[in-house]
Write a structure and sequence with these properties.
2 helices, outer membrane lipoprotein receptor (LolB), chain A, alpha+beta, single chain, 12-stranded mixed beta sheet
């Protein structure tokens, strides 16, 4: 989930990044609970391990997602939708006005309104959060986690897992994951300012064939595009 991972401009990508980070870090990590954690935390680990194992079985992953943003009083500050495609360390994220491509080595961030693409090299050793880092055990050292119990959402019965960042300088103080059948359905980020970000997955597909070209930016398809190369 600095990050997300996807490194964009907003509140848009900044927090879509954080959300995806929280979502995928626990989908694929081999979480190791810190010493001294109690029984409920051991139960949370079992759920996260099952989520991790299931995600690792997917050759590819595609889904739509919805990001809802609210202030501390619950007033809506907007809703954004997008799509995500992943294959190993490769990914493509699309949100209104912006597309992000990566072949696992290079990232292209395309701003549609400006017809401009920014090219950057992914540095695995950097502190920034990128989708590539989400597929390591990077986050097992970043959060304390516990199982809060079952939560009903319509016909769904989900397990709520609460994550607390160990690094107190992070902009958020709590993350809630909602898991059903070893899949994280919803992630909620609670920012220190009071704002809340809810990321929900829909139309998830796994194992589908995804062309390699999906993860590459082809300038020929964008006549007149301005290129900002930061590599």
């Amino acid at each position: 989930m600095k990050h997300l991972i996807f490194v964009l401009n907003f509140t848009t990508m900044k927090y879509i990044s954080t959300l995806l980070c929280a979502f995928f870090s626990f989908v694929i990590l081999n979480a190791q609970p810190p010493k001294g954690m109690g029984k409920s935390d051991a139960d949370a680990k079992k759920i996260l391990d099952a989520v991790s194992a299931k995600f690792k079985s997917f050759a590819t992953f595609q889904s739509g997602f919805i990001l809802k943003i609210e202030n501390a009083s619950g007033k809506s500050l907007g809703t954004k939708s997008g799509t995500l495609s992943m294959k190993g360390t490769k990914y493509k994220v699309s949100v209104p006005g912006q597309d992000i491509f990566s072949d696992g080595i290079t990232q292209w961030t395309y701003d549609k309104s400006a017809n401009e693409v920014t090219i950057s090299k992914i540095d695995p050793s950097a502190n920034s959060i990128t989708p590539q880092k989400l597929f390591t055990n990077f986050y097992d050292k970043d959060f304390l986690y516990k199982l809060n119990g079952k939560v009903k959402d319509g016909a769904k019965t989900m397990q709520e897992i609460e994550l607390t960042p160990i690094d107190k300088t992070r902009p958020f103080h709590k993350v809630l994951l909602y898991v059903e059948k070893s899949v994280i359905q919803t992630t909620k980020i609670f920012e220190k300012t009071g704002n809340r970000y809810t990321y929900s997955v829909n139309n998830m597909k796994t194992g589908s064939s995804i062309p390699e070209s999906t993860f590459l930016f082809d300038a020929k398809k964008y006549p007149g595009v301005e290129v900002v190369d930061l590599r």
